[in-house]
Amino acid sequence: GLNVGDYYKKEVSVTINNSQVTNVFEASSGNWSNTSNWSLNRLPISNDNVSIPSGKIANLDVSNVSIDDLDVVGALNVNSGKSITVTGNLTTTGTVSINSNATSSGSIIVNGTSTGNISYNRYIKDNANWYLVSSPVENQDIDAFVSATSTLVTSGSKRGLATYDNVNQNWNYYLNGSSTSGNFTIGDGYIIKLSAAGNVTFTGTLKTDNLSKNVTQGNNGWNLIGNSYPSFINVNSPANNTNNILDLSSNFSILETGFKAIYIWDTVSQSYKPVNNASDAKFLAPGQAYFVRVNANGNVVLNENMQSHQAGDHFLRSNSNRFEIKLIAKKGDLEKNTDVKYIKGTTTGLDEGYDAGLFNADGASFAVYTHLISESEGTNYALQALPNNNYSSMIVPVGLNAKKDDKITFSADIKNTPIGVKVYLEDKVKNEFKRLDNLEDLYEFTLSDDVNGVGRFYIHTSSKALSVNSQVTESSIKIFNTDNNTLKIVGLNSHEATLKLISVLGNEVFKTKLKNNNNQEIVLPKLSEGVYFVQVKTELEEINKKIILK
């Protein structure tokens, strides 16, 4: 029979109604965090719809706010360093402005759809440097942007805004009087320079889907692209171990071997520095551009789920306890540096996503870098990851590009030195070892010749005190074939050296004397394809290497 009690229980269960409410901003102007400014006399919560009516101005002064729908007829200002996630839809017929300053950026993430325009005020720190920027909105007209940015520098007919052309390997500057430039292409990067610190404003629609940014190989593989969202983007595994630019497999595979990183402009060293999985947690700020080097035409993808909110400076400080060496070379006011990081699980050879080559699209005449300890193919590295053990067995070749009569000063910024380990710079020309692991340690010298490459300087991490009489086990001489008929020999410091090329059958096919020179190229005769052995013999040692001529 019918159980009346059951029937009533069912009746009760279907009448519960958890409807959403709209929390309306009622003050004429004021802070989001003030409960009395809201119609419900409480701050908006995650399942609230929020309305900011005509004539009302709300200033978002808190971080990591999450709401459902947001309807702005009046005005919403997102303060620098503050952030909001709209899990539903954003509708703007009024104004939404997101602000940034010298140390932080406001951010907004919209999971649903976005209708209407928003404005992003991107702060440029000073007038002495170029900065890399991209538009964090769609449909911003370039001509309107230039005419609204009165502080954009001018040089002749050129303005301080340019894109990078990897076919001609130069910058294309915006020209005075241009009037048909169209809109910023979402995901394109630009360099910008102002005559005074301040904001540049991008106004347009907010992107709420993935960005698939076209990249081309051109003549050098370098592409300047940018963050297309008004929020932060996770760059590497330490930032977010699943949703980040570098670990997306399609991005990783299109990046050039040895250059699986993004490259950001460092105003201190006036150079492009790599960020990869050996770096600390890194996030692209809204409106920030970066270089990548690719091995084919294709796309670099930014997914919506790579977005995040970050407080504080765009680039977070290191919080790791790893042994790290930043070798610094100074020439007058110019400072360049290269990083060696000792990370568990990496090798002395190429670790893709952890080693990163030196940015080389700008032809800098002054540079410092390292080569891989083993299996070096002659690539210059700005960041090298090495195992965190057997320090004494690892000798890192250091490269320097500088001119005759340059006065160079080497120093090092070293973190978390293992107990008992000392850090030395070896100079094979001056035949000396110089400690680098005390803060006041400097090594100064004046170049008697142009230098361009490795072979003279080496970093040693040793538990023993090193001097020129120390027995160094691994040879500092390296051999690699740069192309089919050229051999490169680096690190030679001997008056009595010969080079032989021996076929796989044991026949000597080529022999020559070598100069006492740290960096030299040997042009080979025309030889048939196949495997050969290179033998370099000095009065102290013999080095053999297998090469393949194609």
Model description:
It is a single chain. This protein is mainly β. It is 4% helix and 43% strand. A hairpin with a 2-residue loop joins strand 15 (154-155) and strand 16.
Helix proportion: under 10%
State the separation between the terminal residues, measured CA to CA. Answer: 90 Å
Q: Tell me the overall shape.
A: elongated
Q: Report low-confidence residues grouped into runs of 5 or more.
A: 6-17
Based on DSSP secondary structure assignment, what is the total number of beta strands? 46
Task: Please give the count of helices.
Answer: 3
Strand order in the largest sheet: 2-4-7-10-13-19
* Secondary-structure content class: mainly beta
What is the beta-strand fraction?
Answer: 35-45%
Q: What can be said about the biggest beta sheet?
A: 6 strands, mixed
Rg value: 29 Å
Specify the oligomeric state: single chain
Average pLDDT across residues? 90
